[in-house]
Amino acid sequence: MKRAVLFLITVYASVPVILYLFPWILGHVIFAHFLRFPYFLDLGRPEDVLNHTCNFYLNTEDGVSVGVWHTLPASQWEDAPGKSPEWYRETLGDGRPVFIYLHGNGATRAMNHRVELVKILSAAGYHVLSLDYRGFGDSTGEPSEAGMTSDALYLYHWVKKQSRGGPVCLWGHSLGTGVATNTAVKVQEQGSVVDALILEAPFTTIGEVVANHPVTKMYMFLPGFESLLWSILEKNNIVFANDKNLKTLTSPLLVLHSKDDDIVPYNMGLKLYQISLQTKKEYNTDVPVEMISYSANLGFSHNSIYLDPNLSNVIGKFLQNLRQ
Question: What UniProt keywords are attached to this protein's entry (predicted)?
Answer without folding.
Answer: Membrane, Transmembrane, Transmembrane helix
